[in-house]
Amino acid sequence: MFKKWFRKYSFNIRVNSFLFILLIVYAFLPASHLINARDKNNQSTTKLPYFIDVTKSAGVDLNSKSISAIWVDYDEDGFIDLFVGNGYNQKNVLYRNLGNGVFNDVTKSAGLVSYLWSSLSTWIDFDNDGDLDFYLHNTTGNQFFENTGKNSFTDISKSMGFPLKGYSYWADFNNDGWLDFFVNRSDANREQAGSPPNLLYKNLKNGEFEEIAVRAGVADEKDAVFANWIDYNNDGLVDLYVTNNNHQSDHLFKNNGNETFTDVFSATGINENNGEPSWADFNNDGWIDLFIADGKNSKLYKNEGNGKFTDLTLQAGLEFQDKALNSAWVDFDNDGYLDLHLKSHDSQQYISETIIFHNNQNGTFTKITQQIGFVLQGQNFNVSWADYDNDGDPDLYMANRGSNILYQNQGNNNNWIKIDPLGNRSNRDAIGARVKIVCGSLIQYRGIGLGQNNFSPTRQTPLFGLGKNTTIDSIIIHWPSGMVQDTSNIAVNQKITIKEPALPLFTNITKTSGIADFIFKSFGVTFVDFDQDNDADLFICNHEMTDNLLFRNMGFGKFKDATKSVGLDYSSSYSGIGWGDFNNDGFGDIYAIGSIAASNLLLQNTGRGSFLNISKSTGTAGKENYSTDLALGDFDNNGFLDIYVGNDGSNILYFNKGNFKFKDVTVRAGVANSLISVCTAGDYDNDGDLDIYVGNNRGGYDEYPIRDGWTNRLYRNNDNGTFTDVAEIAGVQDMGNSKGCCFGDYDNDGDLDLYVGNDGNPNSLFQNNGDGTFTNVAEMAGVGEPLGTHAVLFTDFDNDGFLDIYAAGGSYIPEQHEYSINKDHPDKIYHNNGDGTFSDISQKAGIEFNKAATTGIASADYDNDGDMDLALANSISKNMRPAANVLLRNNGNDNYWIHFKLIGRKSNKFAIGARVKIIAGDLTQIREVGGGIGYGCQNSLPVEFGLGGKDSVDQVIIRWPSGIVQKLKKVTVNQINFVEEPFQVGPLQMSAAAYNRFIIGFFILMGICLLTVLSVFIFIPVVKNIIVIRKKKKEETTRKIKLTLSKKTDVMGKELISQYETGESEFRGKTSPPILIIKINTIKFRNEYLIT
User: Fold this and answer.
1) Which helix (H) or strand (E) holds 993?
2) Which CATH number is correct for 506-980, 3.40.30.10, 3.40.190.290, 3.40.50.2000, 2.130.10.10?
3) pLDDT (tens digit, 9 = 90+) per residue, 210-259?
4) CA pair distance 267, 854, nearest whole angstrom
5) Alpha-carbon gap, residue 558 to 515, rounded angstroms
6) Closest residue by Cα to residue 602 from 659, 554, 557
7) 393, 617, 629, 1036: which is deepest, by most CB within 10 A?
8) CB contact at 8 A, 73 and 96
9) What pTM was estimated for this model as a whole?
10) What angle do CA 918, 922, 925 make, to 5 degrees?
11) β-pairing verdict for 463-467 and 380-386
């Protein structure tokens, strides 16, 4: 055996006799293995490596009838181990890599002894607990083993209830961070078409799975023999390729992104086959290609990137004399191009041959099997490649019917890199991640855990050959979660672990969501639920005589334009909308504010999927001036939503009297103001009614000269229909040219703080002192930028229990200003550190790309996954052209959360203005259901709380606008909780159902009482007159009672005592108690008298 000294960086020449002898020996080896690979210019680039048999010395010389071999680092110690599945009822073997080139049989201690004729093993972390679990395919019935975390396994097959037959293929097909799996099934009669349907199991994240193949559209009943998860169209969603037997056409199931699939095989150009597929990007063009091992009909298909595939078999120089059974893609010489390993089979002599086709880097291949040391023929079932000795080149294990073989790659002088990707938001195995490596002109792409044959490792640490490149320019990982991570300037010849970032980064899903094609000059944005399906739809208001846009949430990150279908295609200019139920019928209505002399609109939801314009009949059309903002709230607490409108001129307050009857109470209420206004509402003084904050835009534009002396307003609700401006007393006047404002308790002290976005001046963060005054702490907290701000909001982006801040950059100041309209306007995300300060995480959050003037922003959990997503309404870019709006999906983290959707009864139906307080250990938070956050924007109505590491909530306290205070305990976290306002009956609270039962029970009881009274009237004796004689204490008492009885029976129908007869009777005895007091009341009823 030769010493492994000729691999890169390991050949350290020392002039001594021993190494000199070795050099002489090596010189006389067959020259064939020194053949140089050549590039397209016929220039020598690299020396081919050589392989030697190290089976015995490694301790893996298993002499058995092996069916499969899988490399897997089951104990995750950095050295890849080996599992061998044996047929013919022989024991399977798990070899643990000791790290010194030697393996040890640990099958028994690991609890994996099995004699069930095993054909395939799959190693995956199905429960994301940090260790690899094990799915074993056996002829007599499959098994599923859970890793105990102590290098041993427990058989949980029965409890999981998985199918006993069929091969499983694992991937996260819906990108929810948990591995799902597909099972292909074929009946026992391989010669006859038709089999039990295939299965698709969706991971429910709680240790359970749901079978959804029929619903997903993949429950085919052909004879399926192979399957691959791939991303053939690079859309970030794994697709499914299924190979069928008996000359039945294959399937390429395209992932639709909504947990359904569409078969597009007929359009691909791939011919019908029965061979085993193996997918890889052999030409490094970024698109995954396909090789099908199908005997002499084996094919190589190039992915054209448009859904089509082209047969390149002949052009690639691939010819097949024998029957090709299976294949694998591997860069065995580390030149940066994947080579093709093929196993052929002679059916007459029942022997197998290994064939290696070397990738010439120009789209062609050369057969070089013997040149690199592979001359073995035998009964080989499968092969598996991995770098078991961590020297940077792939080694090969062959599972044979007889003696298995481990070939050690002797390496060459090419460089390499190994990448160990660990998912965070994505599944921990990172299956489905796409890795791109850039080394100068050499660019490579690999999909983690995708495309390879049945016997490839599932949990992969991909090895990239780099040729002569000595530095890696960039490693870019597209994670299944949608995150894109770029690491640059990496040294070669090492293994690196890249963890998916844990910060609450956002992914821009605008292009895939369905809203990208609508580019107008947008202003306000609001999340609504117009179709009452409990997910957030999206409404965007546009300027310059273009239609507003209503996008219906179709689920799975997809939105569809529904503007015309519901009658909201008003071609005018609008600044924003308010979403609320103005008549408490359960259907959300819309109030849209017009700009450029457009009238405001009140649009009633008919409950039939359409809206009716009732502005004129309700008197809410407003005046012909520029409306800039609005805030909804029940300011007089009468159970109906009122409307406050900010205008260029006098603002307007409409009180809602019910049944769509509104009254302009602006003057009486004292909230007129007279400047371009933005506004928001909240109960800053904790007195149970909504106050109003007005931010004034002081101008400074060509058409609006600066108007000094105009401060912002804080209108305190006097609880009598009037308001008092206390801005100066409260210290929140702010003369910074305000464009956005919002309330939120960022410091969790139980009162609402205030953030104000200014255009051309620092933003303000007013901390509520709890005594009716505020202190501007923006500079200390680090939240003063950007200096050209429009919309702002408080939201807990990372669910740590502290409100973060989003400040949308956007200025309309003329060009001569430093922050003018023709400059870039980056947004800012400020992460709340929980100590009164904030950190700018804009770059890490993935929003730095948005540099247009963003005039509107709103948050909602549109995908109901527990974290807050964002919609940005963009107006114009610095070239003065309309800019595309943006939808950002929050990629989330592992923090706990809880959401509440409130339903009012006595209060307004959508509970706007309600306050929710939660207590989870030492974490206490409040939120209010908001009716607007400035500049025509409104967040979704459910209130959201992050809980950090708190997995339970001790108490929930809801203060409804009606004044009812409701307390809840034992509320489940990590879900949306629907809470109805209770009915208050004295000190008792009850739900609507309980209240209805109470009312029904009350009337039933009253009916019983009435019947009882009637029966008493019928049967009780009639008393004509009564005489009572009383004497003093302890003296004998004589009572003379003169009775005239109409009946001698009591109310129970018994006969009266004999002494009570018509006429006088006398009763003697001592009184007890001492003084006898007798009260006689007579009630006339039907000319009769009752004694009570």
Assistant:
1) helix 992-1019
2) 2.130.10.10
3) 999 999 999 988 888 889 999 999 999 999 999 988 878 899 999 999 99
4) 42
5) 9
6) 659
7) 629
8) no
9) 0.69
10) 30
11) unpaired
